[in-house]
Amino acid sequence: MFEYAPAPESKDLVKFQDSYGHFIGGKFTKPSATYQTINPATEQDLAAISHGTAKDVDAAVKAARNAYEKTWSKLDGATRGKYLYRIARIIQERARELAVAETLNNGKPIKETRDVDIPLVASWFFYYAGWADKLDYAGLGPNPAAHGVAAQIVPWNFPLMMLAWKIAPALAAGNTVVLKPAETTPLTALLFAEICQQAELPDGVVNIVTGFGDTGAMLVDHKDVNKVAFTGSTDVGRLIAKQIAGTNKKATLELGGKAANIVFEDAALDQAVEGIVNGIFFNQGHVCCAGSRLLVQESVQDVLLKKLKRRMETIRLGDPMDKNTDIGAINSKAQLTKIEKLVKQGVKEGGERWAPNCPMPKNGFWFAPTLITGVSPANTVAREEIFGPVLSVMTFRTPAEAVAKANNSPYGLSAGIWTEKGSRILKLADQLNAGVVWANTYNQFDPASPFGGFKESGYGREGGRHGLLSYLKGAN
Amino acid sequence: MRLEVKKTYKLFIGGKFPRSESGRVYKVNDHKGEFLANVAKASRKDSRDAVVAARAAQSGWAGATAYNRGQILYRIAEMLEGRREQFVEEIRALTGKTDKQANLEVDQAIDSFVWHAGWTDKIESVAGNMNPVAGPFFNISTNQPTGVVAAFAPQDTALVGLVNTIAPAIVSGNTIVVVSSEQLPLPASTFAEVLETSDLPGGVVNILTGNAAELGSWLASHLDVNAIDLEGTSNAAELEMLAAENLKRVIRPGSYSRKSATGSLQHILDLMELKTVWHPKGH
What is the ipTM of this complex? Predict the structure, then answer.
């Protein structure tokens, strides 16, 4: 393994305020009921964040309603689009600052925020900006109507990217929004509020209320909300589906996953190894579509695992601000505890645990990239979403067995296929119950490409024309 | 005088016509309140058997070519036309509609099947997509059936509502367990006979007669059901809560008209899943 000299990005590229209020009606409220948000790589405080109350939620929904009725729904699509283009440009201009902010608050490597998260945020706004004056072509007939006020709740794994996936199509379609970022990663959403001000977006079109799960539940429950969009765990998704039962609220739910990454004996194994590593260790495995179940054809198991282990020994874990880092910090103490518990359970049920020898920083939350081999489909680590850098390895003999094992999950978000045989890819892609299938690649995202799951991975799509439909009346 | 041979109205599960395993029946009266028939009253066990039959038939039906599904749906329209008089008679007896009105309802049911038959091989032209992603990738989105659909046909129509509940589900390759109108069930049983002679594989459509409120909770909470159409229910909010347990796709009552000779593409798409496949482009 090569030695790398430290190459840290500068923390000074971003200045957080000591404390933040909510962003309601174009202005920040006075901070109240605050808690500290930290850098999970150092456990140092970054800023005090307000814990949203029913009153805050109500004020935000009122601001969004007011902006919808008086301003946003009266603007023509071209003008709405221009605001979104402005936002896209400001994000590109402030990309370095946003990447640093995201890495500091989330713990993910700067390499990823710089090269994946923030570029996708900008591209999402740029893509949907162009839809705003073309809604007649969305497939719902002329003049499709917006829902009104959208309540949007995003997770901590891709904080600003998930915000972009939610806000860009909502605004393009003509809705106004109240967004709640995750409690551990609110800072880039608050910087985004500043960007809305810089773009001179009309007051109240975007409102950000920070807080915990209770704040989100109050937002979903608010009687003047027309549309709910949530990305997060299946357990919370279920609660939201129950909360809105019997109402007229529409929902888009992007929930958990337990994707099978299937490697056939004829695959280009070195490429497959890169795809496996990207599939499960990208973003510390905090990815709903992570390829967390490796299904390898029995005949190549030994050679593949040998290559995979050798590759895993070169993974650099450590300071997320270092430009060489591959795996950063686990986002929170709670998540680390959950990963540790599930891995222990996997070993208890007969799995064999392997991790490269990798030194851990003293402070912060860390988990080494880990393999669990000898896993059977009934084991906890083959069924439950771990949401960490942990890969469960199983084998198969025939394509039919691979499909049966891959589909043997209540989830259905994504899947991977590695083979040089084109007809096999096409057949498997038909048979896999997954909303996204990556063949000879993994973890690719694009604003033009719809994303979302089958079964208990949720419903509705984000991205592309289909993602736009989620924010227009007449489509589910 | 010759004594008329009356029909026993039974369930339709897995291509067969069983009585309810519970042995229960309920009385159905005509529009004047006179006794018309004893109809099988489906139980929890019947609904579960129907889901098993629907699941068993699903991959085969979804795997049939769109052309083949289209021809079978068109065949259903043909068989409906051939049975027109029987449906007219049953609709008139149950609802008191005039001959003209009853014929109109049968017209709509037939035409709706023709309308749906034509969609099987066109959904992707309209609702699928090649996506121009910013990288060297082939990227395509296609729609696939969600799986097993449980549905409650509208209570206020005898035939056209049932047809407009079944057709949008099966057109794409879903299989369905449908509970007919409780008070107007006779055409549902007769429609099962149409299906049975239309080359439709057994289990693709399963028809239960009985009480929607009783069967609702079993079907809404069934973990092997992927989507639920609550049109004919009176406790939709409660059932939507149960359906949330495994994140079923839900069609709320009143979402789509069920009394027309055409359906809705959006209704069809509500019972489908969009799948996006990526592959690198390169040498």
Answer: 0.97
